[in-house]
Amino acid sequence: MAGIGLSGVTKTYPGGVTAVDGLDLTVHDGEFFALLGPSGCGKTTLLRTIAGLEQASAGTVSIGDRDVTRLAPGQRDVAMVFQDYALFPHMTVLDNIAYPLRVKRIPRAARHDRAREVGAGLDLADLMARRPAELSGGQQQRVALARAVVAHPKAFLFDEPLSNLDARLRLSARTFLKRLQRDLGITTVFVTHDQAEALAMADRIAVMDAGRIRQVGTPREVFGRPATSFVAHFIGSTPMNLLDATVTGGRLTLAAGTLPCPADLPDDTRVTVGIRPEYLTYSKDPVEDALAGTVGIVEHLGSSSLVTLETDGAAPVGVVVEEGAEPEPGTRGWAVPRPGRVLLYRAGGGDLL
Ligand code: ATP
């Protein structure tokens, strides 16, 4: 078993910044786990604390059944892949891949055999004699992965390993990395600020903000039922509509119209209504139980478009409309929520009700 356990982990830097704040987390054996959150929320610090590159100020870190809190990075049996790959520029691809085995004092012939075998599996057989500067970004990434795989670590720790790749290569690298991880079955923690990447790759996701975890769940859970309006706003390629509303007689009154209230709440309760633009159906004609507005900006997303309905003085409402069905700017439009897709949050940036 090589799950990862964090209990009450806090990391305060010497300057006084608390980057990770009393965090509890369990990553299961063999799981592909994404740490997601905005810049500065503490993702990299948390990963480095698991790796032993930072010492936790409080709390414990365990890998498998070992408490590794006080162990040096080399004793933790984890492999970390950094954003810039951190390859040794003066070494060949072969020596780069074999490096972790050299550290373990494996004899030269044996470590080269093993490095060639791993390199061949990652399509690097013809590049073994080159140096990192003579490789493309995607090839360098594969060398960094081969170096991580070669010593059979208990866990992989990835810090935004795809962020230096161009958009197209990034997509194929996602699939490749996911398949590699699944085939090897190695527990993996993957740091990203890209919610689409986390949704596409991870078995489970932790959404972090200000050193704390706001939600842990499967991609379906964090996308479909975000636990707070922060998570709701952060997840999704088009941000969730978060609209002020008041409950009156079992209905929600919003600036753009009224909707049935999906929960039994007393009159005058103020809430934030969360509805994904994908879960609204657009109508050019007036309909009941809908949000109405004037068509503003229409953004083309590819096979669909994001239509913005402007409402007087309140937040606009985004609706995803199929390609070819986009309305004319300036016309009146209505957006009807799909059944079961209206979420309610406590007013003022609160939790799911
Ligand atoms: P990004 O996505 O921008 O890399 P992150 O979520 O990985 O951000 P961290 O790099 O962990 O965030 O930083 C968390 C907080 O800790 C930030 O406020 C950052 O300024 C601070 N911090 C990071 N490293 C240090 C350091 N060595 N000394 C002092 N403060 C630090």
Descriptive report:
This protein is of the alpha+beta class and 353 residues long. The protein folds into two domains: 4-234, P-loop containing nucleotide triphosphate hydrolases (Rossmann fold); 241-346, OB fold (Dihydrolipoamide Acetyltransferase, E2P), CATH 2.40.50. The protein is built from eight helices and 20 strands. It has helices at 43-51, 93-103, 108-121, 137-149, 167-184, 195-201, 219-224, 229-234, and strands spanning 4-12, 18-27, 32-36, 58-63, 66-67, 78-81, 155-159, 187-192, 204-209, 212-217, 241-248, 251-254, 257-260, 270-275, 280-283, 291-300, 304-311, 314-322, 332-337, 343-346. The strands form four sheets. A six-stranded mixed beta sheet has the order 6-7-8-3-9-10, with helices on both faces. Helix 2 runs parallel beside helix 4 (137-149). The longest helix has 18 residues, at 167-184. It is elongated, with a radius of gyration of 24 Å. The chain starts with a strand and ends in a 7-residue tail after the last strand. The model has no long low-confidence stretch (mean pLDDT 92). It binds adenosine-5'-triphosphate. Residues 13, 15, 17, 19, 37, 39-45, 193 line the site of adenosine-5'-triphosphate.
Query: Largest sheet, order of strands side by side?
Result: 6-7-8-3-9-10
- Summed over residues and divided by their number, the pLDDT gives a mean of 92
- CATH class of the largest domain reads Alpha Beta
Largest sheet: 6 strands, mixed
CATH topology label of the largest domain: Rossmann fold
Reported CATH architecture of the largest domain = 3-Layer(aba) Sandwich
